[in-house]
Design a protein that fits this description.
It holds the Pfam family zf-BED. With 640 residues, the chain is α+β, with helices and mostly antiparallel strands. The protein is built from 26 helices and 9 strands. The strands form 2 sheets. Strands 4, 5, 6, 7, 8 and 9 form a 6-stranded mixed β-sheet that branches. Strands 1-2-3 form a 3-stranded antiparallel β-sheet, with no helix packed on it. Strand 8, helix 10 and strand 9 form a beta-alpha-beta unit. Helix 25 crosses helix 26. It is elongated.
Length: 640
């Protein structure tokens, strides 16, 4: 009976004790044969006896207990615990304390997560309230349970102060490497929030011929956009970054009269955005002929029909399926997008058959055969301009390519005019286009900012200059080296025109394919440059001249074989800088500017994404900081 009532012996303590057969609540020590009470049938008193009277055996007992616990854990690791069992499991006090303990604000892991979240807000155009969203908090809780959540106020202060200050210090360190800086600038306004920003993007080439583009500032604009206020804003922004006017090589801006006046008052060398001027010429040329304008308006009307009706779009897709064609939508011409007329006409030609079949069954205007001919001719004329726009809008484009590309475009127009054409209106439009084109770009060679940069580009050198012009360029280079304070040539005459917004020009356009092959314009340019790859040599300069070393460099540079068009001129200068110690410094300066203000246009495309319905009350200063972090942090691989 007693044996049935006795509990199963599991503890290692019974190695040293036995249960009294006459009294189950007493046990006898096997070592000293003494009997001890075991009230409640616990083993606590037995352990205390072993610990105080038999310490050596107690140590053995503890070791055996540890081995037993370890074996138990290993066994449990191999079994599957259900969620219900896990929920019912009782945590020890130590486990509860450890689970509830969160990282403090100075914990390295916590700081790392703070930085990643702050950068994500800037990079993804997220509102600061995003960090208080349930979905975001659930994700962080799962990935980093010990992370102590912060609210929107913390991240607003963290991004706009700590992150910005650290990144600005890194940017300042980088731009100090540039002896001369070039800039692009533009003004952007968001109608929904009433915010205006004036951008300043810096472009420079270091001594190692590494070129960078950095967003320096987006200055808030609360006043009228007058030239006087713009000049004041520029002086403030340059002073903030410790950049003197003497170190500003040039400023690329649009043709707005207020921007021109601002540059003049700020005493800065400035140039028109080449692509912006190009688009103005194209639009005026097309508008000069009523037949072209009429076709364009008809295409815009047809495009609006499809853009305002999903049913019409689906019906067009069904027709394309019957013709075994890809689903291509119409593309709308828009005055604020570069080359949009070309892309609209190009898309219409691609879906010509589907559009004709759709027009037969629906009440929309159909395009007549003679109108299709006008579209076809316009595409032929505009194709080189579209290629030139993309070429000069590239992030790798240099200002040295402006003169070669403009000369090639003029040559294309001349070739077009020499061919017999059926339509006099197209010929007149091209003739008008050429006249305006020549007027807009007639003084490029007289501007040192263009001429010297082209001459110092080893792909072009003197190829696009007459001998007289080449000598003038050399004289200007010698004069500049001897007297560095001599300013560049005066600005070209200003043409008055209404300013256009071209913010989204670099987005991949419908109807254009990836440029895996050379474009037609680029192929022609390469052919022209390759037509006389062996340049005519020059004699050795007079060694008695005080400028003998520089003149010798000019002769050696001219006699070297030109670089292929697809190669990087900055890499060439990096390899040959020791041979051309004087010219290489000038190349760093004159090859720094881009040909267009595209970097600023891209910046404001990002600004448009920042001001969405979830954050339309964002302060202008905070928006400027978010743009600064968004575009500059990847330059340093987020290490700052």
């Amino acid at each position: 009976m007693l044996s049935e009532m006795s509990p199963p012996i599991k503890s290692n303590i019974w190695t040293y004790f036995t249960i009294d057969k006459n009294d189950p609540e007493r046990s006898e020590c096997k070592i000293c044969n003494k009997s001890y009470s075991r009230k409640g049938r616990t083993t606590t008193s037995l352990k205390n006896h072993l610990k105080s009277i038999h310490p050596e055996e107690f140590c053995l007992f503890q070791s055996a207990n540890k081995e037993k616990e370890l074996k138990k854990k290993n066994d449990e690791a191999g079994t599957i615990v259900t969620p219900l069992q896990q929920a019912k499991k009782q945590l020890s006090l130590e486990e509860v304390i450890q689970k509830e303990k969160k990282w403090d604000t100075n914990n390295p892991n916590s700081k790392k997560i703070d930085k990643l979240i702050g950068e994500m807000i800037a990079l993804q155009n997220l509102p600061f309230s995003f960090v208080e969203g349930l979905g975001f908090r659930r994700l962080i809780q799962e990935l980093a349970p010990k992370y102590n959540f912060r609210g929107r106020n913390f991240f607003t202060d963290f991004v706009c102060n700590e992150l910005y200050i650290k990144l600005a210090a890194k940017v300042k360190e980088l731009i100090e490497k540039y002896d001369y800086k070039s800039f692009t600038t533009d003004i952007w306004t968001d109608p929904s929030s009433g915010v205006s920003l004036l951008s300043l993007t810096c472009h420079g080439v270091s001594e190692n011929f590494e070129r960078s583009s950095i967003v320096l500032k987006c200055e808030t604009f609360d006043d009228r956009h007058t030239g006087d206020i713009i000049a004041e804003k520029f002086n403030t922004m340059l002073a903030e970054w410790n950049i003197s006017n003497e170190k500003v090589h040039c400023m690329i801006r649009d043709e707005g009269s207020n921007m021109k006046r601002g540059m003049r008052l700020a005493l800065l060398n400035d140039l028109d955005c080449t692509v912006h001027k190009l688009q103005i010429v194209i639009r005026h040329g097309l508008r000069s002929q009523e037949c072209i304008e009429a076709v364009k308006q008809k295409c815009k009307k047809i495009t609006s029909h499809f853009n305002h009706s999903t049913i019409a779009q689906k019906q067009l897709e069904k027709i394309q399926d019957r013709l075994n064609q890809s689903h291509l939508k119409v593309f709308q011409d828009c005055v604020t997008r570069w080359n949009s007329t070309f892309y609209m006409f190009e898309r219409f030609m691609k879906i010509k058959d589907a559009l004709s079949l759709y027009a037969n069954d629906h009440n929309i205007e159909s395009i007549l055969p003679e109108e299709w001919k006008v579209i076809e001719c316009c595409l032929e004329v505009l194709k080189p301009f579209e290629e030139a726009t993309r070429e000069m809008s590239s992030s790798q484009a240099l200002i040295s390519s402006v003169i070669p590309i403009i000369q090639m475009l003029l040559k294309k127009l001349d070739v077009y005019l020499t061919k017999p054409r059926e339509s006099d209106s197209i010929r007149l439009a091209v003739s008008n286009l050429k006249s305006q084109f020549s007027a807009k770009f007639s003084s490029l060679e007289d501007n040192n900012l263009y001429a010297i940069s082209t001459y110092l580009d080893p792909r072009y050198k003197h190829k696009f200059f007459k001998p007289v012009t080449e000598e003038k360029i050399k004289d200007e280079i010698i004069k500049m080296v001897n007297d560095p304070v001599v300013p560049d040539s005066p600005k070209s005459p200003a043409e008055k025109t209404k300013r256009m917004r071209m913010g989204d020009s670099l987005d991949p356009e419908p109807g254009t394919s990836s440029m895996s092959k050379k474009t037609c314009l680029k192929s022609d340019l390469a052919m022209m440059l390759g037509s006389s790859s062996e340049d005519e040599g020059e004699g050795e300069p007079d060694n008695s001249s005080p400028d003998a070393l520089l003149r010798k460099e000019l002769v050696i540079y001219r006699n070297k074989k030109r670089l292929d068009l697809d190669e990087n001129p900055l890499n060439w200068w990096k390899v040959n800088r020791c041979e051309f110690k004087i010219l290489s410094k000038l190349a760093c300066r004159y090859l720094s500017p881009p040909p267009a203000s595209v970097p600023s246009e891209q910046l404001f495309s990002g600004a448009g994404l920042i001001y969405n319905p979830l954050r339309n009350r964002l302060e202008a200063e905070k928006a400027a900081i978010l743009l600064f972090i968004k575009y500059n942090s990847p330059i340093f691989n987020f290490n700052y």
